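FORM 7B - TANDEM STRUCTURE REPORT

SECTION 1: FIRST PROTEIN
SEQUENCE AND TOKENS:
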Amino acid sequence: MTSKIAIVILNWNGKALLEQFLPSVIERSEGATLYVADNASSDDSVSFVKTHFPQVKIIVNSENGGYAKGYNDALKQVDADVFCLLNSDVEVTANWLEPINATFENSSEAAIIQPKILDYKNKSQFEYAGAAGGFIDKYGYPFCRGRVFDTVEKDVQQYDDVADIFWASGACFFIKSSVFQELGGFDEDYFAHFEEIDLCWRAFNKGFKSKYVGASTIYHVGGATLNTLSPKKTYLNFRNSLFTLMKNAGGLILPIIFTRLTLDGIAGLKFLLKFQPNHFVAILKAHFSFYWHLPKLLKQRRLSTKRKDYYATPSVVWAYFMKEQKIFRDLPKC
């Protein structure tokens, strides 16, 4: 039986992106229902979609709650077996849904799936945000098959497989609607960045599996909503990573958090040495926000189910910067 898939594109003042990329999604997503969920845009995105793409359903959120709240609010209004959360800056390819649907149908334990994510600006290499599926190290630092920190691999079919992964990219995130509802959706304290890793980690702790399907390909622009050089992005990534680690990691958490905070401090000093004080300040703000939210995070931790075997390598920071192991296949495995 074919799953009923709803593709939901979250939009905020993104008329230009919708004009560029929505046609490929409409043309190449036969059998799926398409939605644009608008996060209280001030441009004419909604009227543009209504006029030019009447086959696309519109959901209008009352406020811009970011990625997390935006999708939580929108998906309450979507009836489907599988939600596909798709960034507005993504070009999909022909038949991209077929391998995803087949994996859901043939693998009952698959709850979350991501396709191969290549760089729209350089289609021969993987894209930073997701690549060929994500993992984390003991201290909560994320990395991907095909991308470790700033080292991005070329696509030479080395990841043309179906594989278990730890987290799937929010750029193109398939999840069974029943699982999304059981997990309570995204944590809205995150606003944006790392919320998909938190959701996948909570799914993992409950015994659900996330998978990568290399037979399905998309091209992602990346950084279209928040530039990679933005101090706000640095703040959200460091803060939300700490949130996620505290809530979900198994084992003795205090030594892990202490080590993580120390590593963050070293990263902040590197920003100072590179004459990027705004990013140093962003990390400080991230830590203060973490301390402010700590009582709530500890409560969430007490209520969660935790598994100890969450990390794929002990320290990706040590491997990458000290041992110069910059490719996924070279990283030490646990």
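SECTION 2: SECOND PROTEIN
SEQUENCE AND TOKENS:
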Amino acid sequence: MTSLGPIEEELAKARVAYRNWGRWGTDDVLGTLNFLDDAIRAHAASLARRGRAFSLALDFNEDGPQRGFRGRINPVHYMRDTGSAAAGTQGFPHGFGGADDHVVMPLQASTQWDGLGHIYDNKKAWNGRSCAIVNGDSVTGIERMKDAFTGRGVLLDVGRVCGDERGELEDGFAITEEHLRTTIEAQGATSAVRRGDMVLLRTGQLGRVRRLGEWGTYAGGDAPGLSFTTLDWLHRTEVAAIAADTWGLEVRPYEFPQPCMSPLHQIAIPNMGLPLGEMWDLEGLAADCAADGVHEFLLIAAPLPVTGAVGAPVNPIAMK
């Protein structure tokens, strides 16, 4: 792996090399999703050849991955009116009855997208805005992206290609550009990454957590993930977005001495304008891709359009 210098030095170099401020105008709200145009979407629609659909979402429930890191809790779901319907006290005519339910949760409790207002770099948000105006993101709220995450998805199953016999990378495994290139070569032509693609990165960590039956330190703990050095690949390939099966996408522990917090996020989101997805369940899709050798698909991954939100839950659907 490329030798990394002190964190401040590496962040400074990355800002110069990968910053996209002004690239799509001063009022831009999409960042690298601008790479994903109508022609790419039209082609992506043709990739749904078999009609097989895969949900890539974890269930949103109280048994989810969160363990309180950064104050995040698992969704709390409760019902309304079911008892009154059974008791016949709802007061509706001709036997009509019904049930309503509510949910309380952080918007990033489970499978989700990080929006462009989620991370700051030295008090600057995407496109150079001051983070002071992001209190409820009135400029790049996630609702601005509600129809943008539709296009060609590509699975890079690094766990299967570079991992152990179970297809899993060990916690702390830093995925470099070399690992990405090795995976693409091993998987074949359908995994070639092109401008405007949404890349899905499987490490196998989620599969291991499910196999062991315990979330443990999945949220906020050590994990395989992208090396800081892959920022060059992400910028150069002009991908629209990237998501992974881990809690934080980038490798943990980080590749720099402490204190350090999410250095790849610090460049990718506010400087590059790259949306990041986390906690995606890629196991079923990965098994199918391995079986038929096709690693490209139509991906529809619209976030819940919560006005002013800096991240949102999603039920991504991959169609093959």
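SECTION 3: OBSERVATIONS ON SECOND PROTEIN
The CA atoms of residues 13 and 42 lie 37 Å apart.
The mean pLDDT is 95.

SECTION 4: SIGNATURE
Preparer initials: ____
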